[in-house]
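Supplementary Methods, section 5.1.

A reviewer requested that the exact input to the structure prediction be made available. We therefore reproduce it here, unchanged from the version used in the analyses.
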Amino acid sequence: MGNPLLTNSDIGLDQCYCYRGFGISEPLINQVTIPQVLENLLESQQSNLALTWYGVDGDIQRFTYKELIYQIKALAYWFVSEQRVTRGDRVVVLSSNCPEAFVTHIALMSIGAVTVPVNNAESQRVLKLIIDKVQPRVVVSGRDLSPEISFSTNALVQLPQLPIVLTIDDFLWPSQEIHHNDPAVILFTSGTTSEPKGVCLSHYNLLVNAEGLSRTHHHCEHRVHMCVMPLFHANAFGFSMIGSIYAGNHVVLCSGIPGISFWSILRTEQVDIVSLAPEIIRVLSQIPVPRETLPALKYVVSAAAPLTKMVANEFIEKTGIDIHQGYGLSECVNFAATIPWHITNEKLQQTLNNWSVPSIGPALFGCDIDVRKADGSKAQLEEEGEIVVSGHTLMLGYWDTEKATEATIGNGVLCTGDLGFFSLIDGERYFFITGRKKEIVIRYGENLSPLAIEAELAALRSIGRYAVTGFANESAGEEIGLYILAHSTLENENKIMNIVRSCPERYRPRIIIFGNTSIPATPTGKIKRSLLAEYFNPYRYKSFGSDPIIGKTAY
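The structure derived from this sequence is encoded token-by-token as follows.
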């Protein structure tokens, strides 16, 4: 296989990677590789807590930085001596959140190998595509591997369970040969295609983003970070894991969403910040605890999917806990923008409620954000366009997918496919996301955002979870479909029809489908609208009036 990534000279990416006049060859930080971070931790953080893991069965494991770094070194030795992994090799890691997975990712990067985190419940089809694409030296599994994933004999290697006890004094570690732009991780993202794309990030990509996170979340004082999202997701990998070890902080890692025990873990571990998907925030609103029982908690970071006003305000009202929304993509490590730690309560309420959607905050250190109109020109204040990102956090490229790389970052910026705008708060640009470019419903030539439509239908939440999508329709080009996870009773039908009919006609769904099948979504709750649209295929040739109709129930 040839070079799987593009270089700057391949498609003229100098502008794409430039940040405030500094090119990618001019690092903004001192520690630019994972080995440098580990060496610094050995000198400064040995006795401090590094990792606490909560398993689903009540298991708890704790590691100081001295203990954690020993485990990283031991597992690095195991990969080198037992699996013959060397610099540049890819290793696919299938696991739930556990100490073995956490340590494995860092161990692999510490020897110059490339870790490839993959969902432990991934489909066999997608897993095969990933393996064929990255050609790994080895595929390893940690905990909770789905029984639906099957491998031939000896094709899957079980990770050693921690703690490991080895004598490894003569092992030269960590590697001193790693360059700051060497690949460190490949994060696979499904995006809008059926074939996953591998986002390849360098050591420097990860660490300059970690510096930005440290500044915007004040990691020098907010030192305990709870992680419930999966480590194969960009948020958990980049924010919770890399951001925390870069700052020498304590990570409280949960093997799943801990339910009602979530609050007791926050209290016991004196967690400062926790990053949650909006769907988890919504669920936690239903099981609140008194705010005074969580004195250490500063705020919740909302990530991985758009946060609605209703979800945000309900959570704040019931829990008294503030929400700081962030935004990003795997293609720029994770966060490109976040509401900062020092914002006043008055301004925080403005960011949540003064515009059509809650703000994602200003751009993070290390990257720039802009808004571009369809003709490529820059959008003005509160003028909608596509969100574009540039700077030092941008990926090296999609692994072995040059055309996709060029399409995404080949014109001097990362084209996110997200629509939004910016406004000014105290003279600083705060950004807002209004929808996905590819999810926009074009009905009789008018562009409509599914998020805007769902906001108009907020009263439906009293009945069940719901989502809207555009679907192909011969008469309208695209029509609006509403799917609601509820029983198709006469009472529900009447309630829903009244709510939908009260919606302005331009936003009004024309067909309503009840169902008992979960709304298609990513592991972090982002709706897969292209899959949802398949429920409405039978109505492709139907002409609709202004009044909605009830369609056939989906099972």
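The domain at 8-434 is CATH 3.40.50.12780 (Rossmann fold). These observations are discussed further in the main text.
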